[in-house]
Amino acid sequence: MAEPALFCIENLHVRTVEGETPILRGVDLTVGEGEIHALMGPNGSGKSTLAQVLLGSSQYEITAGRILLRGDDITSWDVEVRAKAGIFLAFQYPQEIPGVSVHNFLRQAMSARKGIDLSVLEVRLALMEWMSRLEMDPAFAERYLNEGFSGGEKKRNEILQMALLQPEVAILDETDSGLDVDALRIVARGVREVRTERPKLGTLVITHYQRLLDELTPDHVHILMDGRIVESGGAELALRLEAEGYEPWRH
Question: Is CATH 3.40.50.300 correct for 7-246?
Fold first, then answer.
């Protein structure tokens, strides 16, 4: 009997909790082990909604469809359970958490993910190793989470979390937004480093821009319009999108 796919989104229909208007209208997407999928689409197409729903946001209601992780139906699981099971979301706009250092936040998150209470030393050693690989100042570990961070620092911190939490599936929600070329390359290199360590990691990259895909080279590209995936293909689809824009897919 074949192993179930790593991560499946099946016929997903979603609306906001307050509203009647549907945002996602039957999204189907399967991410296999080790694959990079890019999801592209204009503003308002539902990309960030999908990211939030996959993490388990309470702002949205799933009206049909389901989400599967290695064959387990996680549709009704809350955020903490999904995170512990190995779903990771790098936020487009990471939140500031005053009074909680990067080190302490990661110790709590890593302990929850592994189901054991990790020592301060254990976490610090792993943290220092990955901060070096991501070209981050070691003093960064004692700063309050995202407080006063530049855009590039916030995004690198998200990749640092991804490296240390060792997820099964990583969802990168417009991780490239607001980054200059140098910061983008550092973030992309960090993603590649994590994937080298964890070759079975499934990755869903939500982006507007070809420049991130030049760095990461997706296996599959999907175009989301009006809450539906209207076309899927290889990396060449992103190049066509760069050249033609979304007009060919507008109805």
Answer: yes
